[in-house]
Amino acid sequence: MTLNQTSVSLDDAQRVIAAGQAKAAEIESPSNIAVVDAGGNLVAHVRMDGAWIASIDISINKAFTARALDISTEDLAANAGPGDQFFGIHASNGGRIMSFTGGVPLRHNGQVIGAVGASGGTGEQDKAVAEAAAAAL
Amino acid sequence: MTLNQTSVSLDDAQRVIAAGQAKAAEIESPSNIAVVDAGGNLVAHVRMDGAWIASIDISINKAFTARALDISTEDLAANAGPGDQFFGIHASNGGRIMSFTGGVPLRHNGQVIGAVGASGGTGEQDKAVAEAAAAAL
Amino acid sequence: MTLNQTSVSLDDAQRVIAAGQAKAAEIESPSNIAVVDAGGNLVAHVRMDGAWIASIDISINKAFTARALDISTEDLAANAGPGDQFFGIHASNGGRIMSFTGGVPLRHNGQVIGAVGASGGTGEQDKAVAEAAAAAL
Amino acid sequence: MTLNQTSVSLDDAQRVIAAGQAKAAEIESPSNIAVVDAGGNLVAHVRMDGAWIASIDISINKAFTARALDISTEDLAANAGPGDQFFGIHASNGGRIMSFTGGVPLRHNGQVIGAVGASGGTGEQDKAVAEAAAAAL
C-alpha cells in the first residue's frame, strides 16, 4: 500500500513567506525566508533588500532541518550542545543541519507538510519571523 | 576609488519571476525559476507545483552562470561542447556552471545587474520562460 | 527599482592588502590576506612567504564571512559558542563561515562594500593584521 | 635523502601577475589571474575590475591544473576531448582540473616551480595573458 503525503503548494509557500516578510519589516530585520515541502526540497525563497548573503543558505537549511527532523531548530538547538544527545548532528547531511533558532515545521491536521526557515537577525528576530510565517499556512 | 554596481532588488526579482511563471503556465511547463543579483547571490526562487526537484539547483545555477560569465547559458553552450574553447568549464565553480539553455543575464542601461534561470522542460521551453522573465525587468 | 551598491575596486583591495602585509611583517606573522567585494566574491589574495597553506582558505573565508554577515568574525565568535544564539552557524554555507578572529568588514560612508580576512598567526595577530588592512581603505 | 623544491615566492607571483594584468589591459580583456606554488597552493590572485565572477575559481584552478600535471591547460585540452586518452580527467580532483586554455607552468632551470592561470576572455585572450604573465618570471 502506497503512502499519501500532504505537502505545501507554491501558493501556500508564498503566503507563508509574505507573512514572514511583513513581520520582518515590522521588526526591521531584513531577512531571507525559505519554504521547503514534505520532501525537504525548496519550494520558494526570498531575500529582502539588505538582508545578509550568508542567510540565503541558512534560511533554506533551517527549513530543511525543521522538516528533515520534524522539529523546530530551536528545539533541536536545546539538544545539540556539548554533552547533549544530538551534539555533532550539524556535521551530518553535508552541512545542511542548522541547529539554531529560526526553522519551524509547517503542520496541517497534525502532519508536517513542509517547513519555513528565516535568517537575518538575532535568534529572537528570526524566531518571530518564522513563527509569523508559519501561522499563515 | 570604489566601484558602483547596480543590482536587482527583491521587487525586480519577483516581477521577473512572475512573468516567467505566466509563460511557464501558458506553455504548460511547470518550472523552477530563480533570480540572482549582481554578486551572483540568490534573491528569489519559486518551484511551481509539479516541477522537477532537480531543477531547483539547476534554475539557481543557470542564473548564477548567466551572471558569473555575463552570458546566456545558451550562448555558453555553443562554446562549451567537445572541441570548443570552453569545453570543460562545467567542472569549475564547484559544479555551479550550467552550460545549457535557460539562464539569461538581466541588463539595465547596458550593465548586467543580475540574471534569471529557468528549468523544468525542454531547452526550448526553458528558454521561452527565461526570456519572458527577463523581459519583465 | 534597482538597488545601488558600492563595492571595493581592485585598487582598493590591493591597498588594503599592502597595509595588512606591512603590519604582518612588523609583527612577524607571515599571513594570508584576502579581500572580497560587496557580493562576497574574491577580489585579491596574497600568501606571504612562509605562511600556512591552510590559511589560504581561512583568509578568503574570513573575508567572505565578514561580508556575508556584515560583522567582524571576532564579534560573530562571541555569539557562536556553545549555548550562544548562533552556535552551529559554522556548519552553514558549505563550510565558508569562519567564526574566529581575523575577518573585518570594509565600510564606506557607513555601508559595507567588502571585507578583508587575515590568517597566519594567533587570533590577536590576525586581528592586528586585518584591522591595519581595513584602516587603509 | 630529502628533496629540494624550488618554488615561486610572493614577489615572483606578484611580478608575474602584474605582467599578466598589463597584457590583459592592452588587449582589453579584464581578467582574473592567479599563481600557485610548487605545491599547487595559491600564492596570489587578482580580479581586475569588471572581470567575471566565475573566473575567480577558473583562474585559480587553471593554475592548479598546470602545476598539478606539469602541463599547459591548452596541451591538456588537446588530450582530454571525447576519445582522447585523458577524457574524463575534469571529473577528478574535486572539480579542480581545468582542461581549457589559460593555465601555464612556471619553469626555472627546467623545473616547474609553480603555475599561472588566467581567465576572462576567449581562449586566445586567456592564453595571451597567461603567457605574458609567465614570461615575467
UniProtKB/TrEMBL annotation, chains A, B, C, D:
InterPro entries cross-referenced by the UniProt entry: GlcG_carb_metab_protein, PduO/GlcC-like, PduO/GlcC-like_sf
Domain of life: Bacteria
Pfam family, one: HbpS-like
Stated name of the protein: Heme-binding protein
Organism: Antrihabitans stalagmiti
